[in-house]
Structures are given as C-alpha cells and as structure tokens.
Amino acid sequence: MVKICCIGAGYVGGPTMAVIALKCPAIEVVVVDISVSRINAWNSDQLPIYEPGLDDVVKQCRGRNLFFSTEVEKHVAEADIVFVSVNTPTKTQGLGAGKAADLTYWESAARMIADVSKSDKIVVEKSTVPVKTAEAIEKILTHNTKGINYQILSNPEFLAEGTAIQDLLKPDRVLIGGRETPEGQKAIQALKDVYAQWVPEDRILTTNLWSAELSKLAANAFLAQRISSVNAMSALCEATGADVTQVSYAVGKDTRIGPKFLNASVGFGGSCFQKDILNLVYICECNGLPEVAEYWKQVIKINDYQKNRFVNRVVSSMFNTVANKKIAILGFAFKKDTGDTRETPAIDVCKGLLGDKSRLSIYDPQVTEDQIQRDLTMNKFDWDHPIHLQPMSPTTVKQVSVVWDAYEATKDAHGLCILTEWDEFKTLDYQRIFDNMQKPAFVFDGRNIVDAEKLREIGFIVYSIGKPLDPWLKDMPAKRKEKKRKEKKTMNSDTNLSSSSRKGKSVGESKEKKQAPWSREEEKIFENSIAEIGLNWERIASRLPGKTIEEIKDHYDLLVKDIELIESGALDHLL
Ligand SMILES: NC(=O)c1ccc[n+]([C@@H]2O[C@H](COP(=O)([O-])OP(=O)(O)OC[C@H]3O[C@@H](n4cnc5c(N)ncnc54)[C@H](O)[C@@H]3O)[C@@H](O)[C@H]2O)c1
C-alpha cells in the first residue's frame, strides 16, 4: 500500500488529503501537525475549519485510510510520498522583511524529513513557495542523504476556500513540476497516478519545477489584479455616475476577458493574495526587474485604497464623525462559506472605524469572538504562523462586541456595514432592522448584495460600491481627511459657527445670505424629519412649506460643517 504523509493540517493540508483519501482507497493518508489542538479537532466532530462538504468527506474516510496525528516523525519516516503544506508567511524581520516569504517552517520540515527518513521519498511542495525553493530544499535533503534518494516535486494547490471540496473534486487543472531527469519524470508519474484516480488526464499538467512554482504565484497575482482592476473602476463609477455592475457585465461579455472575478467589493482578503504578490514583488526586485515589481505592487496599493475609501465613505456620510456611534458589522470572514479571517478586509475597515472612535457590534455566522478580538489586536503578518506560535489574545478591544445575530448587531446602531457576502444577509428583514436603528439609518454595502432601491424605500441611506451615489453621499465625497485639513485652514481666519441657529459668520456664508432665516420651529421640523425619514429632500420639503429643496440642502450642508468644526475642536473656545 502506498503511504502518503502530509505535514500541515491546515486549510490546504486537511481538505486536500481528505479528498485524496476519498478517491484513493488503496492509499493510506496521514495528516500530521505540530498543533495538538488542531489534530484533536480533526479527530472530533468539530473540524478545525469550516468548508462546505468537508465534514462528509472526512466522515467517509477517517479511520479507514485517512488519519490525523501529531506523531510527525513516525509518519514521515513511514511514508513514500511526503506533502509539505506548512505556513509560508511574509517575513517580518531581516532581509526582505514585509515582502519575502519566511521559509522557517518549510526549512524545519525539510530538515526533519532528512533526519528521520530511512527510505527513498518523493517530497511534494504543496505550500506556495518562492521560485527556486525546491533547489534549497533539495540541498537540505541531499546534504545528509544516508544513501536515500529524494525527488522534489512542486504541486501547488489552486483550491479556493469556501469551495475547496468542489475545487478538489473537479479541479480546473492539477499542476505537477519536477526535474527533467528520468528519476524526476518517474516521480512526476507516481504523483500523476494518484490524481489520475479521479482527475481526467488532460487536466493534469506537468512542467519543470520552476514553472510550477512560479505558476502558483502568477495565478494568484492575476486573480488579485482582476479584483483591483474592477475596484479601481468602482471609484471612477462613483465619480461619474456609471454603475460598476453594468460596466463589469459589459466588459466580462468579451470572451477574451470573461465574466469571473469581476465583482467590485470592499477589497480582497484571504491568506494568499497579498502574501503571494509581495513575494512575487520581492522576487522581481531580486532579479533586477523593478518595473515589473512596481506593476504588481500597484495591485496591493489599490486594494488598500479601496478599504480606506470605504472607511472614509462611512465616516464622511455620518456627519464626518463616528465617535461613540454604534456601527454594526455584518460579516468578518474574508469571503462567504468560510470562517477564515486571514487578511480579511473587515480587519482594516474595523480598525479604521475604531480609529475614529466608533463602537462596533460584529456578527459573522462562522467567526468566533476570540478570533475577532485576536484579529483586531494582532500585528501585521503575525496571523500566518502556526497557532501555538501566534500571540495570545492579549487584550480585548473594549469598543467591540461580538454577537450571534444580525438583528442584535444592528439594534440601536447608526449604520451597518456589510463586509462579507453571506447569503443570509440578502434576506434579512431590513424593515425590522431599520425600525430598530438610530435615524438617519445608513447601510454601507461592501459586497453589493442588497437591493439598494428597496432599502432606500424603507428609509435607509445606502452606499453600494461603484454604484450611482445616494444624494446624501454626493454631498459628502469620500475624501474626508483632505477635506478636514482644508477646512482647518479656512478656520484659521474664521472660526465661527455656520448654521443660522448659531450666531456668527458662516463658512458657506454666501449661500446662506440669500436665504430667509430659519425659525426655531422650522429647525425643529428639519431635524425631526432627518431623524425620521433620512435625506429624502422632497419629503422634507413637503413638511417645510416656506423652504425650497435647494435651501434645505444648503441648510443641511451648513449643519454638517458645524459638526465638523465642533469635532475638530476648533470651536472649543466658543462653546
Ligand atoms: N488557504 C488557501 O486557500 C491556500 C490555497 C492554496 C495554497 N495555500 C498555501 O498552502 C500553504 C498552507 O496554507 P494553509 O492555509 O493550509 O495554512 P494553515 O496555517 O491553515 O496550515 C498550516 C499548518 O502547518 C502546521 N505546521 C507548521 N510548521 C509545521 C511543522 N514543522 N511540522 C508540522 N506542522 C507544521 C501549522 O501548525 C498549521 O496547522 C501556504 O503556503 C499557503 O500559501 C493556501
């Protein structure tokens, strides 16, 4: 019986090996890990990762030809084929920090294989690694061979979380790279025979080692680049009145481009895209290709820009301050159908809002409170290390509460942000949510999953990425930081209150001068109307017979500016 051992029981090692065991009953598959809790979870009814269909596959073969164990050395020694699927984080220190892949875990796995092996082995790179890693691994393994032959193969994994089992059962392709020697080709054939149990031959591609290693980085860079391209377009759509959904549909109809991966969103996340692009950038730089490095860097820059833009929209829409306001966060995982939060855009959005002192109430159907608190307190790149090496959750963020229900999260909130496209968020009772929220009530849809028009009919002010802007948002461009600075400058020469309800000159004085003063009664109606029906200018005007829509909008602008001035502290001497 062929024996396979996989080092690393994570999002890749676990599901990949479960499917191999399912499809190859004649092969014994053991998945090993240094994390005792992870292995215990794989051996329990509560698997350590959530992935549709995974439970079923594991139940069918666990104990038959699929085993999970912490006896790493024993099972590596006994195996014919050793897959290595350990973490390959971004380096945080030393040469290449912030870009290069940290191969500490890979190297220690390779040294252990060399130490414990007593028979020939095929060692398979399953982790995503920099080009030429196989060469380094080969050196470690062959340095102290004890007469043992090793063949290194690169077999990068292309599964996507959330659809991992389907991707593994019906892969677009399986890629195997190996040495172009007879021994190398023999090893490729041995691994091909495993996959050929269920993958059609024409989908199993074989290449040299370096092409296989680079193909994985290239594939992730291309995928992320599509998202950044459509996200860059979304900003332009908001500025011009185009609708990004219509634009990407029209663009994707071109068969040379295709429709997939063209959804605008708050940004991409997941453990791989950013890490692998940074790695690619580093490799380009090391190979004297700064222009190529710069090109790929831009993909990450646009992703960061998109997340910032979203936070700015939220804050500027809500009178330029979210201090002490409750904001509901619906969805924390980086995409639907997974509990994985690694590099999720929700972390940056939440940190941005917390930076503006808001209170957050977070609900995600698959992410625990401990994980959310950990994510919001962890440093960049710390997340991508084996669990036992990650920092403990040191402090909890006081302004964050994690709840188990979308209605609870949104109760008394001023705004709600949808950050993961979970199906259940499409069918929530938004009328009930609106009734229980503060007014005006805002929805910021970071995944374009709600029917914005229906929500507007209910009374929400809605922001959808890359869609024509709500009139409220038009008046508040998402450039609050620059705007604030400019206004501070203006205030140096004139720091008086602007609204007619207060004394003094106005920043928007020229507009105000032409209008009849507002009575206290009109002010009251105006404020109550906004609280009750949001920025529905027509309806507000119908309650204020003496005022035109233009006058009401101007009055609103001045009110917003007042709040900004107060928030900036510039008026403290007057209050
Ligand atoms: N997550 C994805 O969607 C995905 C897809 C394709 C490729 N990849 C790549 O696959 C690799 C693994 O990713 P993942 O998401 O499964 O990571 P993960 O963090 O979920 O799992 C890695 C596991 O390796 C274990 N480990 C680390 N060093 C070890 C050692 N010396 N001995 C035994 N176990 C050890 C860790 O404890 C951890 O459980 C990465 O290189 C990643 O880039 C990930």
UniProtKB/TrEMBL annotation:
<dbReference type="GO" id="GO:0006065">
    <property type="term" value="P:UDP-glucuronate biosynthetic process"/>
</dbReference>
<dbReference type="InterPro" id="IPR014027">
    <property type="entry name" value="UDP-Glc/GDP-Man_DH_C"/>
</dbReference>
<feature type="binding site">
    <location>
        <begin position="272"/>
        <end position="275"/>
    </location>
    <ligand>
        <name>NAD(+)</name>
    </ligand>
</feature>
<dbReference type="InterPro" id="IPR001732">
    <property type="entry name" value="UDP-Glc/GDP-Man_DH_N"/>
</dbReference>
<dbReference type="InterPro" id="IPR028356">
    <property type="entry name" value="UDPglc_DH_euk"/>
</dbReference>
<keyword id="KW-0560">Oxidoreductase</keyword>
<dbReference type="InterPro" id="IPR036291">
    <property type="entry name" value="NAD(P)-bd_dom_sf"/>
</dbReference>
<dbReference type="InterPro" id="IPR001005">
    <property type="entry name" value="SANT/Myb"/>
</dbReference>
<dbReference type="InterPro" id="IPR008927">
    <property type="entry name" value="6-PGluconate_DH-like_C_sf"/>
</dbReference>
<feature type="binding site">
    <location>
        <position position="161"/>
    </location>
    <ligand>
        <name>NAD(+)</name>
    </ligand>
</feature>
<dbReference type="GO" id="GO:0006024">
    <property type="term" value="P:glycosaminoglycan biosynthetic process"/>
</dbReference>
<dbReference type="Pfam" id="PF00249">
    <property type="entry name" value="Myb_DNA-binding"/>
</dbReference>
<dbReference type="Pfam" id="PF03720">
    <property type="entry name" value="UDPG_MGDP_dh_C"/>
</dbReference>
<feature type="binding site">
    <location>
        <position position="33"/>
    </location>
    <ligand>
        <name>NAD(+)</name>
    </ligand>
</feature>
<dbReference type="Pfam" id="PF00984">
    <property type="entry name" value="UDPG_MGDP_dh"/>
</dbReference>
<dbReference type="InterPro" id="IPR014026">
    <property type="entry name" value="UDP-Glc/GDP-Man_DH_dimer"/>
</dbReference>
<feature type="active site" description="Nucleophile">
    <location>
        <position position="272"/>
    </location>
</feature>
<comment type="pathway">
    <text>Nucleotide-sugar biosynthesis; UDP-alpha-D-glucuronate biosynthesis; UDP-alpha-D-glucuronate from UDP-alpha-D-glucose: step 1/1.</text>
</comment>
<feature type="region of interest" description="Disordered">
    <location>
        <begin position="476"/>
        <end position="520"/>
    </location>
</feature>
<dbReference type="GO" id="GO:0051287">
    <property type="term" value="F:NAD binding"/>
</dbReference>
<dbReference type="InterPro" id="IPR017930">
    <property type="entry name" value="Myb_dom"/>
</dbReference>
<protein>
    <recommendedName>
        <fullName>UDP-glucose 6-dehydrogenase</fullName>
        <ecNumber>1.1.1.22</ecNumber>
    </recommendedName>
</protein>
<feature type="binding site">
    <location>
        <position position="342"/>
    </location>
    <ligand>
        <name>NAD(+)</name>
    </ligand>
</feature>
<feature type="compositionally biased region" description="Basic and acidic residues">
    <location>
        <begin position="506"/>
        <end position="520"/>
    </location>
</feature>
<dbReference type="InterPro" id="IPR017476">
    <property type="entry name" value="UDP-Glc/GDP-Man"/>
</dbReference>
<feature type="domain" description="Myb-like">
    <location>
        <begin position="510"/>
        <end position="560"/>
    </location>
</feature>
<keyword id="KW-0520">NAD</keyword>
<keyword id="KW-0539">Nucleus</keyword>
<feature type="binding site">
    <location>
        <begin position="8"/>
        <end position="13"/>
    </location>
    <ligand>
        <name>NAD(+)</name>
    </ligand>
</feature>
<dbReference type="GO" id="GO:0003979">
    <property type="term" value="F:UDP-glucose 6-dehydrogenase activity"/>
</dbReference>
<comment type="similarity">
    <text>Belongs to the UDP-glucose/GDP-mannose dehydrogenase family.</text>
</comment>
<dbReference type="Pfam" id="PF03721">
    <property type="entry name" value="UDPG_MGDP_dh_N"/>
</dbReference>
<feature type="binding site">
    <location>
        <position position="38"/>
    </location>
    <ligand>
        <name>NAD(+)</name>
    </ligand>
</feature>
<dbReference type="InterPro" id="IPR036220">
    <property type="entry name" value="UDP-Glc/GDP-Man_DH_C_sf"/>
</dbReference>
<dbReference type="GO" id="GO:0005634">
    <property type="term" value="C:nucleus"/>
</dbReference>
<feature type="binding site">
    <location>
        <begin position="86"/>
        <end position="90"/>
    </location>
    <ligand>
        <name>NAD(+)</name>
    </ligand>
</feature>
<feature type="binding site">
    <location>
        <begin position="127"/>
        <end position="128"/>
    </location>
    <ligand>
        <name>NAD(+)</name>
    </ligand>
</feature>
<feature type="domain" description="HTH myb-type">
    <location>
        <begin position="510"/>
        <end position="564"/>
    </location>
</feature>
<dbReference type="InterPro" id="IPR009057">
    <property type="entry name" value="Homeodomain-like_sf"/>
</dbReference>
